[in-house]
Amino acid sequence: MRFRAKILDVACLNHFTRVINTIAKLAKTCTLRLTPDKLYFILTDKVANGGVSMWCELSQGNFFDEFQMEGVAAEHNEIYLELTPENLSRALKTAQNAKTVKIKLTNKHCPCLTVAVELPSLASSSRIVTHDIPVAVIPRRLWNDFKEPSVPDFDVSIYLPVLKTMKSVVERMKNLSNSIVIEANLNGEMNLKIETDLVSVTTHFKDLGNPPWVSDGDSQNSTQDRDPETMAEARVDIKKLQQLLAGQQVNPTKALCNIVSKRIVHFILLHEDVYLQYFIPALA
């Protein structure tokens, strides 16, 4: 089992750093899945138990100048590692002006992702700063626990408003309540609502648009017979929503949300070479 990669391009390094910083805000620990073509950062807290889940997919060719890996076996050319993304984020903070960044899987008392940052120096030789990030290798028998989540059979799918605007609204609302109601319809309308014994506050968004999903078989058929005016809604933990909005550093070109009434809110954020899904379960 081997893995090594190298980043030379500063723009690619900065972009990769922003992605890792975003993931570090969303998950204390997560699974890094490596394949020959892609990297995946996966959080699989059981939604049924009130936990969020996350799936972030990157094409390695858009970030790395060199990328080599050998999985556990020829027929299973993948590697699954458990890590603390904050540790990787800290290591990359030292790489702001780096000439190169190398990442490889090593074994130093325990398995590690070793990040070697080559920094420019006035002397003829470069300075190299090395970070050893402990990881746990996930055995093959557990890989099925980390499959890509399926898009839920939603009641409403809607494009999100500008995330910075949504973030400022949610930050003000979180001082009033621990939960927030997200509701939307097929007319491109979305509301964020706080309702307590003392106060009721609603922010309205209009003309957001609804994504043109192509249904496979019966999937997503629940939207076809729905009255466009009818709102689908879910009450969620406001801190979990704020965490998603506050952590965003990749500036998605497309952001949308699928609502399964009273069950789950599913966010999809797209930015060229980054695909992030985030699931927040509804509160009872």
TrEMBL record:
InterPro entries referenced in this protein's UniProt entry, alphabetically: DNA_clamp_sf, HUS1, HUS1/Mec3
Location relative to the cell: Cytoplasm, Cytosol; Nucleus
Record-linked Gene3D superfamilies: 3.70.10.10
GO cellular component, one term: checkpoint clamp complex
Superkingdom of this protein's organism: Eukaryota
UniProt keywords, alphabetically: Cytoplasm, DNA damage, Nucleus
UniProt key word S-adenosyl-L-methionine: no
Region (Disordered) residue spans: 210-230
GO biological process: double-strand break repair via homologous recombination; meiotic DNA integrity checkpoint signaling; mitotic DNA replication checkpoint signaling; mitotic intra-S DNA damage checkpoint signaling; nucleotide-excision repair; response to radiation; telomere maintenance
Subunit structure and binding partners: Component of the toroidal 9-1-1 (RAD9-RAD1-HUS1) complex, composed of RAD9A, RAD1 and HUS1. The 9-1-1 complex associates with LIG1, POLB, FEN1, RAD17, HDAC1, RPA1 and RPA2. The 9-1-1 complex associates with the RAD17-RFC complex. HUS1 interacts with POLB, HDAC1, FEN1, PCNA and RAD9B. HUS1 does not interact with RAD17. Interacts with DNAJC7.
Similarity remark: Belongs to the HUS1 family.
Protein function: Component of the 9-1-1 cell-cycle checkpoint response complex that plays a major role in DNA repair. The 9-1-1 complex is recruited to DNA lesion upon damage by the RAD17-replication factor C (RFC) clamp loader complex. Acts then as a sliding clamp platform on DNA for several proteins involved in long-patch base excision repair (LP-BER).
Protein name: Checkpoint protein
Organism of origin: Crocodylus porosus
Lineage of the species this protein comes from: Eukaryota, Metazoa, Chordata, Craniata, Vertebrata
